[in-house]
Amino acid sequence: MEQLLQSVKIGINQKIYVKDPESSDLGKRIVERSILMIDEMGFESFTFKKLGTKIGSNESSIYRYFENKHKLLLYLTSWYWGWLEYQLVFSTNSIANPKTKLEKAIEIVTKTTVEDSAFSHINEVLLNKIVINEYSKSYLTKEVDTENKEGYFGIYKRLVTRISQMIKLVDAKYGYPSSLASTILEGSLHQHFLKDHFSSLTDCHEDDDPTKYFLHLVFTSLKS
After folding, report:
1. What is the set of domains in the chain, with CATH numbers?
2. Scanning 26, 73, 83, 180, which has its CA 20 to 30 A from the CA of 67?
3. Cα distance between residue 101 and residue 169, in whole Å
4. d(Cα 184, Cα 125) in Å, to the nearest integer?
């Protein structure tokens, strides 16, 4: 897995950024430090001015890469979903049995994140925390329909489609494969959030509990 990912570049919609941050050391520092800062202070308190101070660069240099911090959040969340998609594809590609394949896919997208050394400038554990806490802020906006038409959420939607197709292979007659697939992704974020902040509202308290819950939810809904 690690060797495969080392040769992979996560493809982000070019309309999200002004200049590809992967193309320079400064761009990578912007991404690396922004993850640390958003995790530490939250998206609302995060600003490009504060980021510029941390990386020792002018605020204007950050605007050469991202139009605003909303676009930066879109970039970070898109990168996360792309990273997750590659893990899902590589981990399930050689599995022939549809049920086993879907089980593995659910495990990949619901498990507790561990750091991936293949991307040295991105802390996937902290990025996962940002997605859990902040992802909804990337689409709960007045511009969501326009941004959706521009393809800003393409990677996330593609991941939902992949899982939906796996669900159909297990139970072709199940009437809500896309709804179930999106529930797995969104619900996993929600259960991890509840586990960390509102523990009395969930039965998922251990790291692997969300995975166990969604495996139970999915396979009690499907007729395999």
Report:
1. 13-221 (1.10.357.10)
2. 83
3. 10
4. 19
Task: Tell me the residue type at 72.
Answer: L
Task: Quote the distance between the C-alpha of residue 107 and its chain's center.
Answer: 14
Within the chain, how many helices (H) and strands (E) appear?
A: 11, 0
Interaxial angle between packed helices 48-55 and 25-41, expressed in degrees from 0 to 180 and rounded to the nearest 10: 120
Q: Is the dihedral of CA 55, 57, 59, 61 positive or negative?
A: negative
Number of residues that make up the chain: 224
148-201 pLDDT, tens digit each: 999 999 999 999 999 999 999 999 999 999 999 999 999 999 999 999 999 999
Cα separation values, 95 from 88, 119, 149, Å: 11, 26, 34
Q: Tens of pLDDT along 100-151?
A: 999 999 999 999 998 777 777 899 999 999 999 999 999 999 999 999 999 9
Record the pTM. Answer: 0.93
Q: Which of these, 76, 8, 90, lies nearest to 36 by C-alpha position?
A: 76
The residue written with tokens 């309309």 in the block is 15
